[in-house]
Write a structure and sequence with these properties.
The chain has 168 residues and is mainly alpha-helical. The chain has a domain of 98 residues: Tetratricopeptide repeat domain (Serine Threonine Protein Phosphatase 5, Tetratricopeptide repeat, Alpha Horseshoe), CATH 1.25.40. It contains 8 helices and no strands. It starts with a helix and ends in a 24-residue tail after the last helix.
């Protein structure tokens, strides 16, 4: 009771600031309503860039001889780009490293179905055959070989005089 009496006497003496503080303590505090706004649409991720990143990380894993991680990354990349020759070829390489030549052959065949003239895939098929102790089919070696350099048209001119001292 005494406190109430003191509070009532102090109210006129303390001014408006104290009264508003007292009122704030007594009345429940209400938060203003939240405003919910939609975010701006994010651009769709570039699937080719994602596959490139996955392939790059898989290549690093292969170099580090972490073939399990490489296979996980390559399988994820293959779900996003099932016809990517690099990914199919790299899967064949990993299975060659693991000695699973049946699976490596399967992935090399898939890669060749996408790009029959891929020299990298053909070279890896030849390398896989050597790892297995098999003869490499001559057609594979010829297809994997770089094209012969085209000679200069007409060759060297006939009227080139030899240099003094025997050089040409």
């Amino acid at each position: 009771m005494r406190r109430l009496l003191i509070a009532l006497l102090l109210i006129p003496l303390s001014g408006c600031a104290t009264l508003s503080r007292l009122a704030a303590l007594v009345t429940p505090h209400r938060q203003p309503p939240l405003e919910i706004r939609a975010l701006a649409a994010l651009p769709a991720p570039d699937p080719a860039a994602a596959v490139d990143r996955l392939y790059g990380r898989a290549a690093e894993a292969i170099n580090a001889r972490d073939y399990a991680l490489a296979l996980e990354l390559l399988q994820l990349a293959a779900t996003r780009a099932p016809a990517d020759v690099r990914v199919l070829n790299a899967q064949g390489v990993v299975y060659d490293k693991l000695g699973r030549f049946d699976l490596s052959a399967r992935y090399y065949e898939r890669a060749l179905a996408v790009d029959p003239s891929s020299r990298i895939v053909l070279s890896n098929i030849a390398y896989s055959a050597r790892l297995q102790g098999r003869e490499v089919a001559p057609g594979v070696l010829q297809a994997a070989a770089p094209p012969p350099a085209t000679p200069l048209a007409g060759g060297p001119p006939d009227d080139v005089a030899p240099l003094p001292g025997g050089g040409s």
